[in-house]
Amino acid sequence: MILKVTSRIARWGRLLFLPIFGCSCALLLVRNPPPHTKLLFSIGLLFFSTAQYSFALQLSTDSQVSTAGYYQLNWSGKDSVFQLQESTTPDFRTFNIIYQGKDLARVMSGKSDGQYFYRLKTSRDNQSYTSDVVKVTVAHHPLKNAILFFIAGAIVFVSIIILIVKGNTKENN
To answer: DSSP label at 133?
Structure first.
């Protein structure tokens, strides 16, 4: 959100301060410029510099470690085509393009155990931008624990059924 506001302010600032900035530059060439000229020059320079570097991609995840095998990747942007890349190494020597489009999130599921690295790429104003790398570790619960939970649940379920059936027969006698 801050990124959008900063970019919008910078664009409008360039339009509003362009005439003032130009006059300020001309006045700086004069021997004794008025005191407010340096202030206007600084403000104008600030707007010109922010507009050029205010766009930065931010990629994030809802969990760094996924024990269920699914997680969500989020990013922000407007009117851009994003390319989400996945790699098993942090240097992205080899990668797969997971998604390409205008969406701002992607749910990843069905991943096997391991470390996955993600980055986002987009082009804007004839420049290419790349986000920071996000690392997600997938570590499923061990199969032994899953079987133990299943057996415990089955025992509780069968016990409840037996109690319902026996409780009902005692009242009828």
So the answer is: P
Percent of residues in the chain assigned helix, strand, coil, to nearest 5: 45, 25, 30
Per the domain annotation, does 161 fall within a domain? Answer: no
Give CA–CA dist 173/166, Å, rounded: 11
For residues 134 and 63, state if they share a domain. yes
Say whether both 11 and 43 belong to one domain: yes
Q: The CATH number of the domain where 130 resides is what?
A: 2.60.40.10
Tell me the pLDDT of the chain averaged across its residues.
Answer: 77
Same structural domain for residues 100 and 128? yes
Contact 123, 109 (CB under 8 A): no
Count up the domains in the chain and report the number: 2
pLDDT tens profile 12-52: 444 444 454 454 444 444 556 666 655 555 555 554 444 44
Rg (CA), the chain: 29
- State pLDDT tens for residues 130-168: 999 999 999 988 889 989 999 999 999 999 999 988 876
Question: How far, in Å, are 23, 53, 65, 93, 139 from residue 122 at the CA level?
Answer: 37, 15, 26, 19, 30
Domain encompassing residue 122: 59-138
